[in-house]
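## tool: complex_structure
## caller: assistant
## args:
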Amino acid sequence: MIIRNHVLKNAYRDSVALMRLSREVESLEGVEQANAIMGTENNKDLLSQAGLLAQAGRSAGSNDLIVALRLKTIEWEAAALEVVQQRLASGPQGTSGDSEYRPRTLEGALQLLPQANLAIISVPGTYAAREARKALDSGLHVLLFSDNVSLEDEVELKRRAIDNGLFMLGPDCGTAIINGVPLGFANAAPAGRVGLVAASGSGLQHVVCLLAAAGEGISHGLGVGGRDLSDQVGGVMMLEGLRALQEDPATELIVLISKPPSESARDGLMAALRESAKPCVVAFLGDPGKTTNGEHIFIEHTLEAAARRVLDLLGKEVPAWASITEAIRRRLQSLSSGLASGERRIRGLYSGGTLCYEALLVLRELGHEVHSNLEPKVPDQPRNGGGNSGHLLVDLGDDIYTVGRPHPMIDFRSRCHEMVQAAADPDVGVLLIDLILGYGAHPNPAADLVPALREVQHRASRRGGEVACVVAMCGSQGDPQSLSRQEEALTEAGAVVVHSNALAARIASALSRNDLSALPQEEGNGE
Amino acid sequence: MTISHEWPVAFIGAPLAAELPRLERAATVIAVFRRSCYLETAGGRLFCVADRNMGEGPLTLGVDLPPRHTLGALGVAVGTLLERDGEDLRLGRQILLRTGQAAMWQPRPVSNVAPMAEIRRRLGCLIEKLKSYVPPDGMAPLVTHAGTLARGNLPATPCPGAVAQLATTRVAQLVNAVTSSDSPKVYDAVGSLIGLGPGLTPSGDDFLGGLMVAMLVTLRGKRGPGGDYPHWRGESAAGVALENLARSITSHSTAKTNRISAALLEQAVEGNGNAAQHRLIGCLLEAKTTANLAGAALDLTRLGHTTGWDSLAGILLGVHLALGLKEMGMAAAPPTAQRDLFSRPTVGALA
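## result:
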């Protein structure tokens, strides 16, 4: 371990630049720790206590900047100093241009981009409503990524937006695709004829990916926030989205996606759908309704069924995502025969709440007893909703898992931890997870999941058992993570990877019952 | 090279507005950032020329800087001169700052202070709202424990982050020293905080700056021409506290922190904070206000990397501490021996 201090005399850099410099240097492989800090007496004491103060730093004055380095070996010093010099040299004297100026306020941003028509807001929930209000009052549509916004604020903001002819997508809206531009968590999708409005980010993403796999693109995908179809909000933004897609010449078919809406929201939507000139596929997952027999309204109960219906209406073939290949079948047979009879419980660990919910519905429809933290807490029930019997599906995007941490679509630590914990449970034989690719998501999920999968097998074998892992992969060919590379890496690590969440749940059910006969087989050899 | 950019000056901080007419010779740029720069006058006074969107401050000359422009690209560098050009100011060779329409900025005073119980309620609500969002950097974690620290106690759980952990003990020592009117201990505690932590303006400086401004506004203290607080002089614990803090900060900042931070601290001990600080303090103290307290806190935390949060921690503690001192009321003046450290043999000095 080598300690070096690089001192710049009378060097003033703004705090953000110093923070970025420290992080950039620290990201170098051979740098254990880097700290760019003013050379005041108290800071030198701080560095000394951290073991980071060297001779050069000791002689620094209060107006000097110390870059303190802890290096693995001396060979890394040159590389670290090169980054320091580059960063400090290009600092405030850099060329002007967009990349240099980062406005800190809405007003500053509008000065830079007066033609903007959408503000994406992602600030802590306490402040989000105020920022959204400012944006709406400035004539901007809003995509409100923030959660922890009160229902009262949501109602008021959506009313304000509608009164001004604007969209208020959210709160807790993670996904939109507008004119082919992915916003938030979104997948690469070809331009096409299908417009979607969803009170579910992962639901929207999943249907977009299923369509993209069939070569069918989308016109726009609007996320309206998970509470839009509640009684209080009344589905107002989904209605606005429906209206906009009706008027959009690029949209030929409309898809609506949500968990069961409130009675009043559903009635309002159905009335609007009856007036629709374009065919509409409605996926209200778990809705006990009420199939309407309009010529142009089609009610489906899973995301997979909704995508299948869309393709059918557009005269497109359904690709392989709804069935299993022969290779997968053989793999499942091997896994199933390896599971002991008492080792058949399913543990689902999801990053997408809607995907978790869809899996819950599929499993219950197949007659399984399933618990989940998605459902209202019952007294005396464990925090994660698990009872002493039945399967357990966990939405890791729930607040209790995400306080102080990034969303599980970005940060896999909590999921990997839960996977390994589950493997130690002698009753658990099937792990069921979703993997959502696309912009904004983890840049290389396999890098985190593969070690976790190996640890899962190790833990299971230590207790003399086995665990089958089924992955519902939600992604498209154009996604930055490379769909095929992710699938290859996970398959090599022993996971079974399919592209439909509903199919993944059916596979988990079949493994749990040691009965693969009900699983749909792909036509042809399927290799 | 001829002037190629003419930018109107939107505002000038009041203390700077008082100094600028005395600018006879050029001021020199000592630090350049993307959208602002610091300058030093021939008399050694520091001030800032900045994009107006960065907010008002006592030493800031706020300019309508067009988007996409950075000062560096327009030839502003360390050593560039700012000179008078009639009524206007020429910065380097390309930039003319038009001062004709500039407004003088100073914070709006708190006209009608809310009852202490209400102020405490607001403090508690704000801290509760901010809890989940406080970053572990600098002295930000002290935001959550402002109430505890204002009683001179340490939090039950240690703060995250090396700077905050170190600062917590020192701040508790400072509070105890202030409330017991122990000048030497105030001096030592302030010395242990100045220059501490990350940032161009170290966390400890931002914290003490926020603390000082908040206390001065809350206690309605203003230094007289003699440099002391005539309304409070020798009459109360509050007056002695303000004096001890102000003198300690002034004494330490020359040697223990950089010039830019020292210049801002010099303003803070006069009660001159930036617009975001005063807006938040106003929201906390003003009896009738419809302003959004959490929004004002957000505006402040946007400053710098940890500057805003550090300053917020200082403000919350400062208001708490000031209320406590008010409640102590007209305490007896502390023993003369303890005040001798700072006594000055001038008319009007503490007797």
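## assistant note: The mean pLDDT of chain B is 87. The first strand of chain B starts at residue 5 and ends at 13. Handing back to user.
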